[in-house]
UniProtKB/TrEMBL annotation:
One GO CC annotation: cytoplasm
Source organism of the structure: Daejeonella rubra
EC number(s) reported in the record: 2.4.2.1
The keyword Ubl conjugation is assigned to this record: no
Protein name: Purine nucleoside phosphorylase
Classification via CDD domains: PNP-EcPNPII_like
Pathway where it operates: Purine metabolism; purine nucleoside salvage
Length: 271
C-alpha cells in the first residue's frame, strides 16, 4: 500500500504544484453541487490518477477537485465509491489516505440515506454523531501499517464533537431542519425490507445508508477529525413503507442539497 500511496501522491503533486489542501470533502449521491461553490484551481479525473478506483455509477462524476471554498484550501471527491460496486474496502478508502498524505487536517463527508427515526422526514438533514457498522468487511482488515495508524484504533469519538456542535448551531441559525443521530451502514445495493428497517431501528440507528463508515474508520485510523452529514432521501418506516426509485432519491437529494451546502460552507468558514 505504501508504494501505491506514494506513487499516487507524487502524480497528484506534479499536477497541483505547491497547492496543499487543508480540508478533504467526500460528496455523496446526488450531492455533487457543492463543487459549483469552489474556486477550482485543479481538476483531475479519477481515471487518470494512478491506483485510484473509478466510480462505476453514471450519476457520479469521478473527479478530484482542488480549490478554495470559504477561504480554505480544499480537495473534493466529486463521486464517491461504494462496496456494492465491487471494490474492496481498502480500495474504497484509498482516496482518504491519499488526501491525508496531501496534507488535509479535517475530513467532511456527505451522503444520501434513508430515515429510520419516525421523527425524521424526507428532505431533512442529519449530522452523524455515531455509527453502527453492518458492512461485512473492514478497511483495516489484514496486516496493519504502523506508519499510517495503530493496529486497534480507538472509536470512542468517530465524529468530531466540536464540529457537530458548530454544524447544529449553523443549522439552527439558518432555520434548517437538521437532526443529530446515529447512522448505520449496510452493503447494498438493494434497499431494505420492512423487517430489516425494523431491525435497524431497534438496534439504535436513526438513518441507514451504504457508505461513509469505511472512510470514517480509515480517517480515525489516521487521526483525522471527521464531520459527516446525511440528506434523508426516503423514509424506512415499516408500517407505512412505500416503494422508492433511484430517480426519487436523487431528486430529493438535489432539492435538499442547498441546505447541506450552507452548513458545510459556513462550518468550513468558522474553522
Amino acid at each position: 500500500m505504501h508504494q501505491n500511496l506514494q506513487l499516487t501522491k507524487d502524480y497528484i503533486k506534479r499536477k497541483i504544484g505547491d497547492f496543499e489542501p487543508e480540508i478533504g470533502i467526500i460528496l455523496g449521491t446526488g450531492l455533487g453541487g457543492l463543487v459549483e461553490d469552489i474556486e477550482i484551481l485543479h481538476k483531475l479525473m479519477y481515471s487518470n490518477i494512478p491506483n485510484f478506483p473509478i466510480s462505476t455509477l453514471e450519476f457520479h462524476s469521478g473527479k478530484l477537485i482542488f480549490g478554495i471554498l470559504s477561504g480554505k484550501r480544499v480537495v473534493a471527491m466529486q463521486g464517491r465509491l461504494h462496496y456494492y460496486e465491487g471494490y474492496d474496502m481498502k480500495q474504497i478508502t484509498f482516496p482518504v489516505r491519499v488526501m491525508k498524505l496531501l496534507g488535509i487536517q479535517k475530513l467532511f463527508v456527505s451522503n444520501a440515506s434513508g430515515a429510520l427515526n419516525p421523527a425524521y422526514k424526507k428532505g431533512d438533514l442529519m449530522i452523524i454523531d455515531d455509527h453502527i457498522n453492518m458492512q461485512t468487511d473492514n478497511p483495516l482488515r489484514g496486516r496493519n501499517s504502523d506508519e499510517l495508524g495503530p493496529r486497534f484504533p480507538d472509536m470512542s469519538e468517530p465524529y468530531n464533537r466540536e464540529m457537530i456542535a458548530r454544524g447544529m448551531g449553523i443549522a439552527k441559525k439558518n432555520n434548517i431542519t437538521c437532526h443529530q443521530g446515529v447512522y448505520v451502514s449496510v452493503n447494498g445495493p438493494n434497499l431494505e425490507t420492512r423487517a430489516e428497517y425494523r431491525f435497524l431501528r431497534n438496534i439504535g440507528a436513526d438513518a441507514v445508508g451504504m457508505s461513509t463508515v469505511p472512510e470514517v474508520i480509515v480517517a480515525n485510523h489516521m487521526s483525522l477529525p471527521v464531520f459527516a452529514i446525511s440528506v434523508l432521501t426516503d423514509e424506512g418506516f415499516p408500517d407505512t413503507l412505500q416503494a422508492v426509485s433511484l430517480e426519487e432519491i436523487i431528486k430529493t437529494a438535489v432539492e435538499a442539497e442547498p441546505k447541506m451546502t450552507k452548513i458545510l460552507k459556513d462550518l468550513i468558514l468558522e474553522l
